[in-house]
């Protein structure tokens, strides 16, 4: 299954969710690839730590190769690095993505990433692929939307963030109508949830009233997230007994159940009716 974690609003938890959900998939035995499409490269630093200084290829090299005569599909595989954790691999990014962007847009390269990911998934047998995106609807987030089966929208329980969700839904609708009829919004991931506070619950209720799909479990807010970022160790491997680590394991499990029997190379294989435990359907 190929998923993008996307919300153009900054700081809602895209990178934290991508890395920790991927770690939870990997810990559950799924061969998992994380693709960092943000020039900030926070995802790459979180997963590779100090090894970032020694890597020779990033996703920028892949995009640059699509502008030249190199065989771009194979060049993506050169950018895949194993992490320190079993089953977890990543394609890191770097800040040259910024200067490449206008050239890529001008040459209509929006489908190239999806084509190359499909080749890599087929050759290397990934079960799960997750894309981390920049806080903008730009060439890179659009490339990811063109490459995936499903979109996960992180939501930070802020009243001002509800509009951002609707903008993501509109972007997905456009891609679905024009290019990928099977693209779905798999659900909204509630991040920074504080069970004791009333406001987040009220905001979530209002999303439910709008018939938006809210995934379970909600991700609680905890300082352990920042600690795990600075340790450079994803939560399921850092403090596996912490509530937030268990939240991520539970979310991964719910998503896997949702798509039981589905792998990244064959999204339709074994697709089942949504399980009630995996999401609270709002109808
Ligand atoms: N559940 C959580 N509990 C506590 N802190 C969190 C949680 N989720 C994210 N954070 C913190 O919030 C900050 C923003 O998170 P993150 O970088 O994942 O967001 P982002 O959406 O990727 O940001 P950007 O839009 O800049 O890419 C980080 O400092 C991270 O440690
Ligand atoms: Mg980020």
UniProtKB/TrEMBL annotation:
Give the compositionally biased regions (Basic residues). 268-277
**Any idea where the AAA domain is?**
4-185
Region entry Disordered: which residue ranges? 259-283
InterPro entries named in the record: AAA_dom, DNA_Partitioning_ATPase, P-loop_NTPase
Extract the PANTHER family matched here. Answer: P-LOOP CONTAINING NUCLEOSIDE TRIPHOSPHATE HYDROLASE, PARA FAMILY PROTEIN CT_582
> In its UniProt entry, what is this protein called?
Chromosome partitioning protein
């Amino acid at each position: 299954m190929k998923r993008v974690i996307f919300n153009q609003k900054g700081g809602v938890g895209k990178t934290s969710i991508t890395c920790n959900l991927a770690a939870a998939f990997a810990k559950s035995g799924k061969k998992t690839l994380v693709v960092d499409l943000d020039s900030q490269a926070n995802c790459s630093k979180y997963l590779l730590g100090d090894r970032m200084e020694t890597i020779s290829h990033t996703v920028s090299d892949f995009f640059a190769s699509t502008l030249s005569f190199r065989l771009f599909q194979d060049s993506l595989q050169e950018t895949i690095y194993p992490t320190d954790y079993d089953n977890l691999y990543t394609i890191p990014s770097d800040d040259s993505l910024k200067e490449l962007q206008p050239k890529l847009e001008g040459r209509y390269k929006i489908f190239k990433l999806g084509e190359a990911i499909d080749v890599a998934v087929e050759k290397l047998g990934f079960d799960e692929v997750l894309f981390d995106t920049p806080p903008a609807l730009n060439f890179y987030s659009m490339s990811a939307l063109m490459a995936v089966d499903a979109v996960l929208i992180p939501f930070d329980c802020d009243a001002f963030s509800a509009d951002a969700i609707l903008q993501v839904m509109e972007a997905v609708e456009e891609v679905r109508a024009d290019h990928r009829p099977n693209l779905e919004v798999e659900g909204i991931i509630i991040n920074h949830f504080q069970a004791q506070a009333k406001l987040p619950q009220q905001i979530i209720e209002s999303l439910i009233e709008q018939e938006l799909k809210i995934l379970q479990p909600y991700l609680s807010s905890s300082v352990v997230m920042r600690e795990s970022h600075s340790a450079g160790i994803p939560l399921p491997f850092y403090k596996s007994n912490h509530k937030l680590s268990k939240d991520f394991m539970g979310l991964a499990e719910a998503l896997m159940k949702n798509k039981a029997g589905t792998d990244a190379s064959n999204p339709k294989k074994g697709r089942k009716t949504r399980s009630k435990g995996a999401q609270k359907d709002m109808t």
